[in-house]
Amino acid sequence: MRRRLTFGVLAAFAVLAAVGAIAAAIGRDHAEKDAAEASRASAEKSHTAPARIEKVTRGEGESEEASTAAQEAYADRAYPAASISPVQVKTSHGADHQIRVRGGRGHGSWRAIGPDTLNVDTLGTQSFGPPTQWSGRETALAVSPKCSDEACRVYVAAAGGGIWMTQDALSAHPAWQQISDGEIPTTAIGSLLIDPTDASGRTIYVGTGEPNGSSDSEAGLGLYKSTDGGAHWALVPGSWDVAKDRAIGAIAIDPNDPTHIFIGTDVARHGLSSRSGGRYTPPDGRTPPLGLYESKDGGASFTANTIKPQDTVNPGSANGADFYKGGVTSIQYDPNDSSTLYFTIWDYGLFRSTNNGATNTEIYTGDPDPVGSGIRYEFSPAKLAGGKTRIYLTVGSNQKFTDTGEWVDASKLLRTDDAQAATPVWQPLSAPTKSDPGKYATWNFCRGQCWYDQFIVSPAGRPDTVFIGGVMQYEELPPYGGADSSNGRAVMQSTDGGVHWTDMTADASNRPGLKFNGESMHPDQHAFAYVPTNPDIWFAGSDGGLIRSSGSYADNSADCDHRGLTGDDYTDCKAWLSRIPTVLTTLNAGLNTLQFQQLSANPLDPLGDVLGGTQDNGTLAYSGSPTWFLPVTGDGGDSGFDPTNPQMRFHTYTGALMDVNFHGNDPKTWVWNSDLFNNLEGCCELAAFYAPAIADTQVHGQLFAGLEHVYRTKDFGGDQATLEAHCNTTNAFGTSDWLYTGKCGDWTVASPNLANDAAYGSKAGSYIVELDRANDAGTMYVGTRRGRIFITRDASAASPTYTRIDTDAQPKRMPSGISIDPTDPLHLFVTYSGYNAYAAAAGTAPGHVFEV
Fold first, then answer.
1. Of residues 198 and 73, which shows the higher confidence score?
2. Fewer CB within 10 Å: N-end or C-end of the chain?
3. Terminal CA-to-CA distance of the chain, rounded, Å?
């Protein structure tokens, strides 16, 4: 008998329902990329090892909402004024902070369990190289101008970890200190700048909010400043009105006047859940336009300098459908002329002002983005002899091919040697010509995710030296299909003005790994900095933390002779490996910046055996130590344990792509059971970037996964002996001869199309985002991205029966969580992401937390 449904809004502000996987102890961190709907994921996946997958392209593509009640509530709060001002919002934030400082903290206590350090197994690395250490996504770096062999201060900005600093960045094991907790009220940081007018290096600016375009690029709270090397921070007051709920992607200080400040703002989001959906730009009237802003009074106030037409929010879409156009990610002064300023605008090009920002001219105009999300540009100026200024310019064009697979366009590098000319002449330095290792080196350098990761840096005083960073070229690494013609080309260096390049991605240490020798960078590069007195010692920041070069280089091209290469691949390899770092050193021990998506606990040992999926750093294992372990490579989505034999466990990469292990966390015994999902997600069925997957809470061996349908296996994906004999995920231990043949896995459909079947009425669209199993014989709840909620009481039956229990009185938005009463399977709480103001505009139901 169906229990009567009583949905009731519990609060106008956030009330977080605890989802009990580890009783009242471990919650979910919210981070990760969306699933693309209009343009499906550009997944770069090995045909020999189911591991690393690239980010999706633009994000989502449907709808998000609420109702006129929100307008009334807003009007009630604003009365007698017509709107709530940014000043009032800021004051409210301050009051909330004081309440949290003074208010009760509850009866429980929290203890951090790490990871202070993440140890990565050889099978956890993207190249199956030697064991290493990683941390989380780093977005910006700054090196003190006082850096020396004796003391070198380096600042690191993290996407979700705040600001970190070390005083001994050149030591073998730097000691890291978190310096923004309690001072900056967000951990999402996008930019860092040491004031060039302060010779002591102790004045630092931090732009909050991450500008990297991903759905987990969290919006910020303005610009912050420290005058004591990061010991204390204060909001730059004028930045609040122009940058709150945006990201600050760039900061510049006038070399002649430290009170003259420029900042560039970019798209960033709120509301992302671990189900990779629900993020949204805050409502109009609260979110300032993207663009270049200027202060002439030390930040007391900012005014718009350059604002271009940009996307507006579509309240009827799942993610707002507003992307990056109009954002500013780079601002720099001319090294020859302190009154000349350059800046890039997303989807427009490169601009120049010769009168310190009073007016500007576009000096490079790119082609419009055919995908529609906007082309990102980055640049680096260099001082040439004779007083001219060179600029290196990256153009983050999306990959485009003819119907027959020939290149039409891709990301590329340009150079001008007279940026001050009335009409600078731009020389292309990239081309899709594999026989030319110089031009091919930087062609397609950021592949299909240039909105997310790219940098270009030419060290001061070395105009012919330039570094470019983007994504890993996986097919050129040993574990993946393709010729092993490089070390990954995630970071490349040229010492002759961008004509010839060598690969900085791995070193010449020859430290032994399984399929690759030598330390190697993590994929997805975001930030780069160098020691001012010796630019050969440099730091690169990526999705996997921080790495440092030793300052010397070696010719490792002889290694190409052992890679089975011929023709252009051999020629390219010889060129790219002719000068690589002698030693690369990871600096991630103690740098606690990892971003978790999900946690699962061994039901028989919930405090000592935990798995956690992380953003681009795989599924990590915790066994009681603050040093965690990564046993297998790839992204980290959902994970879980069998209820009666928790040595049986699973993890997912992206989508519902899954490995299982019948032997705990042994890196060698993960087996692939996801041929079905690998085929479906490429052609026939939508899935979230991190699709929901759960182990049954009661039934041994039973797993569920959500795409548009619910899928189920009753034996962890297949017979153990068969999977272990043919579907080893590493292609290195055991046999992997059945991978991608359709034989690995025995998943079956266990529901109708709950997301899109018109027979279920309203809120159709997208895919399943929530699967939650009660502690009884067969009750399970399913949530779809557009807000449908279903119940089945017979989840283990041959053909489970599903009943939709929501109505149009509940939001047409993404359910971010379902929490079931452990003592009553028909009593639950449902939370929804999104903004009521957009629901009002779309004419759909408001509300965020409901009880059933």
1. 198
2. N
3. 15
